[in-house]
C-alpha cells in the first residue's frame, strides 16, 4: 500500500479506470509489537490516524484483494432431471460478498440479499455454517390458506391466512388473516393483525400493527404519521410501537 485516505469526498481512482476506486473493509491485522509502537503516539482511529502514520513512517503495509482472492469452499446444490445433487466447489458465488450496513438502506438491502432461490448471500452452507442464538420456540405454522413465497421464516412464526412475499419474519412473528407483507423485515414478537398491508418496511421488535393499517404505500402519509423513512423509501417502525389505522 502506498496511500490511505479516510472517507475522501473525491476518492483517488485506479490508474486506467477513472470509474473505480479501492475501498477499505475496515478489517485490520497488525503485529502486536508494531501496533503497540504506533499507539504510543496517542493515535486512536485506524483509518484517520494509525494507517496513514504507518505509511508515512516507513512501515510495510499491505492490502488484501478480498473481491478477487477470497474463497469459500462449499457445496452447491442443483436439481437436474428431478434429482437433487450436491457438488463441492472451490469458490462459491458469495465468496466475494461484503456489505457495510451502516445505514437503514444498506441494512435493508443486506437482509433482502438473503431471500430468493439463489440468494446473493447464502446462509445454508455446510462447510461454512452460520449460527446465531436460537430461542426455544415451536416450528413455523402456516394455516387457513396462508401463503409464503421467496421468504425466510424463523421458529415460532404463525401465518394465519395472510400472505408473505420476499420478506423475513423473525422469531415468534404473527401474520393474521388477509394481511399482506411484501419485501419487508419483521423482527421478533411482532403481531400483524388482519387486513394489514405492509410493503418495503422494517418493523422493530414487539410492535403491534392493528387491523386495517397500511404502511409503505403512501410515503407522504407515513411521514405525516411520524414514521422514519430512509433515503430509498424504506419505512421503519420503532420497537414496541402500536400502530392504529387513521
How would you characterize this protein structure?
It is a single chain. This protein has a six-stranded parallel sheet with strand order 3-6-9-12-15-19, with no helix packed on it. Strands 5-8-11-14-18-17 form a six-stranded mixed sheet. Strands 4-7-10-13-16 form a five-stranded parallel sheet, with no helix packed on it. 15% of the residues lie in helices and 23% in strands. The chain has three domains: 64 residues, no CATH class; 62 residues, no CATH class; 103 residues, UDP N-Acetylglucosamine Acyltransferase, domain 1. β1 and β2 form a beta hairpin. It is α/β, with parallel strands linked by helices. The chain is built from five helices and 19 strands. The radius of gyration is 23 Å and the shape is globular.
CATH class of the largest domain: Mainly Beta
Number of domains: 3
What spatial order of strands do you see in the largest sheet?
3-6-9-12-15-19
Bulk shape:
globular
Explain briefly what this protein structure is.
The chain has 246 residues and is an alpha/beta fold. The chain has helices spanning 32-39, 46-56, 66-69, 104-112, 219-224, and strands at residues 74-80, 83-89, 141-143, 147-149, 152-153, 158-160, 163-165, 168-169, 174-175, 180-182, 185-186, 191-192, 197-199, 201-203, 208-209, 214-215, 228-229, 235-237, 242-243.
Helices, strands, pairings?
Blueprint: H1 32-39, H2 46-56, H3 66-69, E1 74-80, E2 83-89, H4 104-112, E3 141-143, E4 147-149, E5 152-153, E6 158-160, E7 163-165, E8 168-169, E9 174-175, E10 180-182, E11 185-186, E12 191-192, E13 197-199, E14 201-203, E15 208-209, E16 214-215, H5 219-224, E17 228-229, E18 235-237, E19 242-243
Parallel strand pairs: 3-6, 4-7, 5-8, 6-9, 7-10, 8-11, 9-12, 10-13, 11-14, 12-15, 13-16, 14-18, 15-19
Antiparallel strand pairs: 1-2, 17-18
Amino acid at each position: 500500500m502506498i496511500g490511505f485516505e479516510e472517507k475522501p469526498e473525491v476518492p483517488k481512482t485506479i490508474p486506467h479506470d477513472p470509474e473505480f476506486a479501492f475501498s477499505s473493509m475496515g478489517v485490520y491485522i497488525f503485529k502486536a509489537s508494531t501496533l503497540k509502537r504506533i499507539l504510543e503516539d496517542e493515535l486512536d482511529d485506524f483509518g484517520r490516524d494509525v494507517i496513514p502514520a504507518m505509511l508515512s513512517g516507513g512501515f510495510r503495509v499491505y492490502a488484501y484483494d478480498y473481491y478477487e482472492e477470497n474463497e469459500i469452499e462449499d457445496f452447491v446444490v442443483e436439481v437436474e432431471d428431478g434429482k437433487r445433487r450436491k457438488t463441492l466447489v472451490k469458490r462459491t458465488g458469495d465468496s466475494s460478498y461484503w456489505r457495510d450496513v451502516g445505514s437503514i438502506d444498506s441494512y435493508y438491502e443486506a437482509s433482502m440479499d438473503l431471500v430468493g432461490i439463489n440468494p446473493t448471500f447464502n446462509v445454508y452452507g455446510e462447510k461454512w455454517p452460520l449460527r446465531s442464538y436460537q430461542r426455544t420456540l415451536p416450528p413455523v405454522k402456516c394455516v387457513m390458506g396462508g401463503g409464503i413465497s421467496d421468504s425466510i421464516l424463523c421458529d415460532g412464526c404463525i401465518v394465519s391466512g395472510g400472505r408473505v412475499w420476499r420478506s423475513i419474519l423473525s422469531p415468534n412473528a404473527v401474520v393474521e388473516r388477509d394481511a399482506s407483507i411484501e419485501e419487508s423485515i419483521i423482527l421478533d414478537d411482532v403481531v400483524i393483525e388482519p387486513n394489514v398491508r405492509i410493503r418495503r418496511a422494517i418493523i422493530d421488535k414487539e410492535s403491534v400493527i392493528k387491523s386495517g393499517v397500511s404502511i409503505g404505500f403512501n410515503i407522504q402519509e407515513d411521514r405525516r404519521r411520524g414514521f422514519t423513512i430512509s433515503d430509498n423509501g424504506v419505512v421503519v417502525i420503532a420497537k414496541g410501537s402500536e400502530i392504529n389505522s387513521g
